[in-house]
Design brief:
By secondary structure, this protein is of the alpha+beta class. The protein has one domain. 29% of the residues lie in helices and 36% in strands. It has two helices and eight strands. It has helices spanning 2-45, 122-128; strands at residues 50-62, 65-77, 82-88, 98-105, 108-115, 132-135, 142-146, 152-156. Strands 3-4-5-2-1-6-7-8 form an eight-stranded antiparallel β-sheet, covered by helices on one side. Strand 4 (98-105) and strand 5 form a beta hairpin. The protein is elongated, with a radius of gyration of 21 Å. It starts with a helix and ends in a 17-residue tail after the last strand.
Length: 173
Amino acid sequence: MNKEIKRFLIVFICLIITWLVCVIAGYKSMQKRSAFYDKYIEKMYGNIQFKGKVMQIHKIRRGGRTHGLICIKLYYTNTDSFYMFYNKIGGPFSFENKMTCLKIKDSIATFPTGFIGNDDSKRTIVILNAKYIEVNMNNNRQIIYIDSVGNKYSEHINYTSSNLIESDMTICN
């Protein structure tokens, strides 16, 4: 019986060590992916600033999830024309996922809100009720959503295209 307990303990300790190694490796991979994505966003979109009135928010359902695409009538922009739709997905061990999009044309900005399928989350409620949006003003890397009574909600810029397809970028025309 003593040998069986020792074997069990050895196997149990090995499983715990394996689990810890996997958790640490996953955490490091996530950190690396996040750092890469932040650098990518900064390089591609870092100097773009705009603000304006929300014209429409479109809900697009694909792959079992609902994502949003926002149309803004621009009051100010430092970029008159810009288009980027990139849907590169790296392999299972790659941190180079570049899934972003933004369109600025004819004083209208089109960009994704990300996942908005949970209609009762604070983030989704604020986004769906936004009347005015400021993006990267003062180079703060923030999107600020403002509702009709002046409540504000901000989040870090990411422009994640997720399940959008390139033809979605023509919705706001």
